[in-house]
Give the backbone structure.
Amino acid sequence: MADISIALGGGGVKGIAHLGVLKKLKEEGFNIRAIAGTSAGGVAGSVFSANIPLSEVRQSLSNLNNRHFFSRSHQDRPSLLGLRGLVNILTPLLKNRTFEDLEIPFAVTTVDIHTHNEYIIHTGPIIEAVLATAAIPGVFPSIKIGHTELLDGGILDPVPVAVARWLAPKLPVIAVCLSPEPEKWATLPNLQAPPDIPIPLPILEYLGRLRVSQAFQIFVQSMDITSRMIAELRMQVEKPDVIIRPNVHHVGILDRVDPDELIEAGISAVEEALPKIHHSFAWYHQLSRQFNAAEPPAKLLDTDG
């Protein structure tokens, strides 16, 4: 089997496509030796690294109560929405697993709101780390771990290629980016409130007409543009061996979706990328990877502190 390392990018609910990518790569005989995930990529990477069967993950998604998915817990920090639904999905699947329990080396990226530093989490409780990497600023609550207050790693590292390379320096890095090439950005949907948010529709429509709400919408859309550009620039610099872009660009990050449709999009994207993946094993590519540095590309979070 051919060994590879995977970098899974963010994208909200579009991240379900990562499950199809991982499934197809495994079926094609690739041995996934390491996974780095940011935001939605951290969610998908966590269940795959723990060897949770896709059928169980699909069942959890099908049982999802959409209306309460974005509900908040009383201890949540300031945010528009909560992630109680994500906790309800991950808890039965991952239970109390730590990174040390995983069958595949796995890491997620986050950003400390106070020091502005990027952190890599690869030790300690998994669910806590996944919630941190998925905490879109202003939308979902930040997560306190030790002396840090952490937000979505996509602020600085939307597709964690360097982290995937650090986890397995000699292997090809396959980057999975859930946004299209920049020339297609004009067709992307704007961020919309989740259709099942537990607020009466008339109130929701009234809030949407407020100038402060419209200003926040513009701010979030601007952040999304910035994140996509950072992803493109970092991939140009960090040069993954292959970039896979599932056709999920019509989906908003908080939309209600058909999980099977997104999984199939991930499968199709791998089928299209197979020639490039096989080419990444050419001897001259393997030779160049022997000189890759093994130093972590960001601070490692001390989960004991």
Summary: The CA atoms of residues 173 and 203 lie 47 Å apart.
